[in-house]
Specification:
By secondary structure, this protein is of the alpha/beta class. It contains 13 helices and ten strands.
């Protein structure tokens, strides 16, 4: 098995909201294999976009990455000089932002914007660049691509803007494509087309993909593996089939219980009681404790060695495993340790899984 393309470990990002510091990411760790689609799923505000932005060091001005590692094919991105990072962005890793309408430059034509990527990352200019830009626009399903290169973004529909963003994102032929809610703003038919397009492009190019979504249906269609985010932390990572067959974390299970399906027709859906906790203070214990019906008294307590709040995570079947994690360390074994590494910590079943 080849080494994963991307290894993220202990990633923590804080944002200064003016009144308080928001701990948007807390000790996030996962891997993305070559040619693999890893999906991050989670409700609004759980930290999905902040994870994507942190990987590319594009956090808002008020934010900073306070800890962690982002290893892309053996290169630590968090310590690269900014000039080198600019080469990584767009060439090795590119991103389809959550808001395509605001991510395209309104005063440049679509062709000029794709051309900028081709010039910077593929060294193409003039006719060669225009021909390639038209090919890319055509490949994302824009009819009459050659002519539409001269259109401005406002002349494109929402679905076409999304496709233009995808064309720009793949123009540099990246090894990793980050797609942040790539279809949320689209109607169902266009959504299906864009997902199919991403799948085809990935298969053709052997690209890895980090797919961010709050939609478990999209995860089922697209992902090889899944990470579930809750309140700034990854609480479960699993292979797709295992995840859909038997989600392990109590939060993941509640997500499934809240999904409508045929068997629940006419009945009430199981809402998750309570609210996502504020991210302005560290969590002494499990961040899901107020909403978890498996919670035990120990779940709310700080781990004994005072290490990161992320160290107290439910990794399996709720109470039993948590209590085992928190059991007193054997005499002479030193302070109770956090779980071995961020990847292992978040795994359902505890064993880190490599990408395929
Ligand atoms: N510029 C900012 N300043 C302060 N806090 C921010 C900023 N951007 C995001 N946050 C906070 O960071 C946390 C994570 O936000 P993020 O955008 O990653 O959520 P998300 O999971 O992508 O949500 P959604 O599904 O709505 O896109 C949230 O608590 C959010 O309020
Ligand atoms: S650690 Fe405890 S409160 Fe948290 S999810 Fe697991 S069982 Fe529930
Ligand atoms: Mg988001």
């Amino acid at each position: 098995m080849s080494a994963p393309l991307l290894r993220v470990g202990g990633l923590s990002t804080w944002l200064d909201s003016g009144e308080a510091v928001v701990r948007a990411l807390d000790d996030v760790g996962f891997e993305v294999g070559r040619g693999e689609t890893f999906a991050i799923v989670g409700e609004s505000g759980s930290g999905k976009s902040m994870t994507a932005l942190s990987l590319l060091r594009l956090v808002p001005e008020t934010g900073r990455i306070v800890a962690g590692s982002v290893d892309l094919d053996g290169v630590e991105l968090l310590s690269l000089p900014e000039a080198a990072m600019r080469t990584v962005r767009g060439r090795r890793v590119s991103i389809i932002f959550q808001e395509p309408a605001t991510s395209l430059n309104p005063v440049l034509t679509v062709g000029q914007q794709i051309g900028e990527v081709l010039a910077r990352h593929r060294g193409l200019r003039g006719d060669a660049s225009r021909t390639r830009a038209a090919e890319l626009l055509h490949s994302v399903g824009i009819p009459d691509a050659e002519r539409r290169l001269d259109d401005y973004p406002f002349q494109f529909s929402g679905g076409m803007k999304q496709r233009a963003m995808i064309a720009m994102a793949i123009a540099g032929e990246p090894d990793l494509l980050i797609a942040d809610e790539p279809t949320t703003a689209l109607d169902v038919t266009i959504q299906a087309q864009v997902l199919e397009l991403l799948r085809t492009l990935q298969a053709e190019r052997g690209m890895s993909m980090l797919l961010i979504t709050h939609d478990l249906g999209i995860v089922a269609q697209m992902a090889h593996r899944v990470g579930v985010m809750y309140a700034g932390a990854l609480v479960e990572i699993a292979d797709r089939d295992a995840f859909f067959h038997a989600p392990q974390h109590p939060y993941s299970r509640k997500l499934f219980a809240a999904l409508p399906d045929r068997t629940k027709r006419g009945g009430a859906l199981a809402a998750i009681p309570g609210q996502v906790p504020p991210l302005t203070a560290p969590f002494p214990g499990c961040r899901f404790v107020d909403r978890c019906d498996m919670a035990a008294a120990r779940c709310a307590k700080r781990v004994r060695d005072g290490r990161t709040p992320g160290a107290l995570r439910c990794v399996g079947d709720g109470r039993k495993r948590v209590e085992r994690r928190l059991a007193p360390a054997p005499r002479g074994a030193g302070p109770a340790r956090a779980l071995p590494d961020p990847q292992g910590r978040a795994q359902a079943g505890g064993r880190p899984r490599q990408g395929r």
